[in-house]
Amino acid sequence: MKTLRKKWHIDVLHHSHTDIGYTARQELICRQHADFLRQALFILRRIDRGEAEEQRLFRWQCENWWQIENFLRFADEAEQADLIRYIREGRIGLSASYLNLTDLVDERALEEHLNKARVWAESIDAPMQSAMTADVNGYSAGLPDALANAGVKYFYSALHTHHGMYPLHENPAFFRWRGPKGGSVLTFVGEHYHWGHVLGLCPNGVSSFMLNDDILDAIEKGKILSTDAETTEREEMDLAQTRITRYLSGLEDHGWPLDFVPVFVSGILSDNAPPNGRIAERVKKLNERFDGQITLEMTTLDAFFEKLEKAGLPIPEYSGDWTDWWADGVGSTPRSVKLYREAQRKRNLAALLDPEQKLMDRELYRRSGSEMMLYAEHTWGHSASVSDPSSSLTSEMQMKKEAYAVNANTSAGELLDGILEKMGNRTIYPDRDQCFRVFNPYPFPVTAPVSAPLLGWESIHGCIQKTQPLALKDLSTGRLLPTQTGFGPRGRLAETFLCLCPGESRELQIVYAPSNQSMPPHTAGMCADGVIDQAGISDLALPEYIETDFLRLRTDGVRGVASIIEKRTGRELISPEGLSGAFTCLYKATPTVGPRNAFRRKMGRRRETVNTRTFAAKPRNFSIADQGDVSVSLKITYDLESTEECSLLLKLYRHLPRMDAWIRLKKKSCADPEEIQIVFPFQTDGNNETWIDKTGCVMRPGLDQLPGTCQQFWCLQSGILRRGSTFDLLIACPDTPLVSFGEQQKAPVELCNGQSITLNRGEIRSRIMNNFWETNFALDLGGWHEFRYVITLEPARNPEDQFKRCAALATGLPVLEL
Fold first, then answer.
1. pTM of the prediction?
2. With 0-12 CB in 10 A as exposed, 13-18 as middle and 19+ as buried, what is 673?
């Protein structure tokens, strides 16, 4: 056995990793975690009564605030009082993080739930200094600001490097992580949250995770841990002594600057695990065996971080995005992610309309936020979701996960409807006057299209003319606005565009457009076939060529949308370096060899290998789907591998530098690792520096990141900004959050070094769906899908302001029906 060069201290953090749905039904997980805290209280009470002296070192660390909140739902007054007492005594540790979250969560919901934890801790006169997560592989650069604003000083990450990686090229590591707004937290990146099982700290819960040592060989051959309880206890103690010594010796060899290190352990070898008083007994026995050379102590996060601060070592500082290696898992459920993001927009608009919460139903606001947090939680389904996708349990748990998004959307919709009703919105009623109020709730001017519905049963002044075009009249001036009539749900839509200052509103009314009484113009371009297709006409709309006040678009039979010219500067917006036209779908698949789970696991952090096949959508038909005074719409149908239907509907606004795009697919089911990306090969008249907005921050992918982090994909909030000299190009992504840049190389994975300028300027790829993961996430992508995008050219502004406009583009201007 190796000889250690210094005396060591191991801080043992006993916790339960929260996976809502991974090991059992979601509602059962809630009940289990409430009981886990109840069991921890039971152990501590027995110790206090002198009934478990051998467990007196026992401490319990709550992984998140949700565990406390969930317990309080089930606990009686005596249990709540005991919990508060043990927290104050430092025997149960708090964590301010609500759950182990994905980057889907938005800044408002995140900060609200951090503050809930802070307020509760203040109410019981206990500090809420620490936050932790386990399992998840990354966080937005805005997290340190959110934590610091909630009074949190310390952050611990017990991440899982399955398909992931430690940041900073080190493990373990500690540093001060600073957010873009100046908030900072002392951060520790530790081993996997089951590392204590590898070191033998949990009786009958030994693991060899990430190890392939001689002890694992002995376990697999049945030489140890396979006889009676007494022998197993002795063998586990020997195993613990050996592995702990080896682990600490490795830290010494690596130059670890401290004489202590934290280790997490659960009560059984499982996620969603109960507390286990026998861990305290194991700690006591190991201390006796190590005889002062190594001391183990059960502790809490607060106590560990206070020790780390007192160590007095220099603490390096870093800022940047800790990009999540697991972010692409949300692409396995594109429909419910779309609903979730719509719920965010509804809830955030409600908060914008009613900042003092005088009009809203506060219970709906709370409920929608709670459902959103549960959907953003990192567990997507049962552990057998890929190995056994047809099982009833797998299907049940996936549907319940998606129900969080559905319920959040429903609650947010009811919340917003209630506010709009109190602001004057009315439901349908007979003989209504088709009057509407459009208003701008944003703190900046907005120019945007606006639609008002005329339902199929409605008349205008007692007259129903189903073929007569509609017009929108500005009631303040009596003037008819440029209007285009289109089809809408159960009727027709009248569309115009408005420019509104902050707080400005406009009342409009649908009327029938006056009959055209003009004679044909005396020009050579007026032809008897009614087709306008001569060059030089400023508002041409042909499948090959469309021109608006701001843009000139060309198509061809190979690339689809092959050219878009910004007319003011003459700049080509589609990069000549791309192989595909704008909005082209790419289908990527890697044929499975052998068992599904094992094959995916071996792909590691790569999402493409030399065996991956890429298919670009091939244009089949081009047509003008609609045109009028407001916009012209181009439809392209494509042939694409693994789809039954694939189409693009691209609407160009005649008097705005804006395009709205809808990608529609009917996807076939496939069990191979597969993905669909949409190509946005856009460039500006500048250096094309690219920004995205993430939770609580804006950042430049490949540049504003912690060293050694993921640069294969990012999970954004509202959209993508490509900066120019005289104009910026902004892409709002209401439905799908995953984005990457450039073609993925079939090569070893390159980690971010903060200097990936070529990547940052690379071709934009919206990654709309995938099924890469071998566990937890959904396997089947089949069915009907639609994804919307808004592309605008904006005057050059700072990125923070652009992304506020991007969020407004996705949400639109509210319209009240009067």
1. 0.95
2. buried
